[in-house]
């Protein structure tokens, strides 16, 4: 079992210095590493706990009820780790569960949809969104974008094969390029000027997508903008850490070795990965 504090022997008690508490980041797998990398760039003093729910990915084919329950379990676990804030580094969770869950926990919880939508509207008027089927079906990005600017046009495409291909480290597989081409085709027919990564896994596909898109199309990565929002929230709450960060801790619900191997290419090193122990029921629903 993981102790109530992530630090052995409960050496750290963040109640006296809450600004030194870690920030929790979670995703279904390696997609959230795009948010983690932005944290390292923009907020290098913050300590981080990363959780990948690899036993239950992909999230994009799950129901709203399933996603909401998964998020509830993860956030309860995150609270046990004494986090001061949580970033849902998963667009599907942000689209389907954020508004419900936010009222159940007394810590700040940030999602990707609104920061991504704001950034997209700043870039163009003909906006394409590639996302998981669940996120696309929710219309979360389209609603958020049109609430900001009702005059823009938005097209969405569900991309069910992207997450499994990325998790299997098949980014440079010719098959992946053909899949990407088929997903982008209806958006290119609409002459989009902006493309939003509606899933945190998708920036890993940037070389493939960029090769298929006209240079005139701007790519929007909500990971960049949710970290900007995180920085603003930390300042607002007086929780920015000014001390050196503690080492990032990586946890998964599935196979730690597989996650370590998959994530090494994006982290630049092979992380030590631990298994997070929820209840048996929490992890058994595949």
UniProtKB/TrEMBL annotation:
Keywords: Cell shape, Cell wall biogenesis/degradation, Isomerase, Peptidoglycan synthesis. GO terms for molecular function: glutamate racemase activity. It holds the Pfam family Asp_Glu_race. SUPFAM superfamilies: Aspartate/glutamate racemase. InterPro entries: Asp/Glu/hydantoin_racemase (IPR015942), Asp/Glu_race (IPR001920), Asp/Glu_racemase_AS_1 (IPR018187), Asp/Glu_racemase_AS_2 (IPR033134), Glu_race (IPR004391). It comes from the Bacteria. Substrate binds at residues 27-28, 59-60, 91-92, 200-201. Its EC number is 5.1.1.3. Pathway: Cell wall biogenesis; peptidoglycan biosynthesis. One of its GO terms (biological process) is regulation of cell shape. The active site is at 90 (proton donor/acceptor), 199 (proton donor/acceptor). It catalyses: L-glutamate = D-glutamate. PANTHER family: GLUTAMATE RACEMASE (PTHR21198). Belongs to the aspartate/glutamate racemases family. Provides the (R)-glutamate required for cell wall biosynthesis. This is Glutamate racemase. The lineage of its organism: Bacteria, Bacillati, Cyanobacteriota, Cyanophyceae, Nostocales. The gene is murI.
């Amino acid at each position: 079992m993981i102790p109530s504090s992530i630090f052995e022997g409960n050496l750290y008690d963040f109640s006296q210095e809450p600004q030194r508490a870690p920030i929790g980041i979670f995703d279904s797998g390696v997609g959230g590493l795009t948010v983690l990398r932005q944290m390292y760039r923009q907020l290098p003093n913050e300590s981080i706990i990363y959780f990948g729910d690899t036993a239950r990915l992909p999230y994009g084919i799950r129901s709203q009820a399933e996603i909401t329950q998964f998020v509830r379990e993860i956030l309860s676990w995150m609270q046990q780790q004494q986090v001061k804030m949580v970033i849902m580094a998963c667009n599907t969770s942000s689209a389907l569960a954020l508004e419900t869950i936010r009222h159940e926990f007394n810590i700040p919880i940030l999602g990707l949809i609104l920061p991504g939508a704001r950034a997209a509207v700043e870039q163009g008027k003909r906006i394409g969104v590639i996302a998981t089927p669940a996120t696309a079906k929710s219309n979360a990005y389209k609603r958020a974008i049109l609430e900001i600017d009702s005059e823009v046009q938005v097209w969405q495409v569900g991309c069910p094969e992207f997450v499994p291909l990325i998790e299997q480290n098949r980014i440079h597989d010719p098959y992946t390029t053909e899949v990407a081409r088929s997903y982008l085709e209806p958006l290119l027919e609409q002459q989009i000027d902006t493309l939003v990564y509606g899933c945190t896994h998708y920036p890993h596909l940037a070389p493939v997508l960029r090769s298929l898109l006209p240079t005139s199309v701007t790519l929007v990565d909500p990971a960049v903008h949710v970290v900007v929002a995180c920085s603003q929230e930390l300042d607002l709450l007086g929780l920015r850490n000014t001390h050196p960060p503690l080492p990032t801790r990586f946890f998964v619900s599935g196979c730690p070795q597989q996650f370590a191997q998959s994530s090494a290419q994006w982290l630049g090193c092979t992380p030590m990965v631990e298994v997070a122990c929820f209840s048996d029921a929490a992890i058994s629903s595949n």
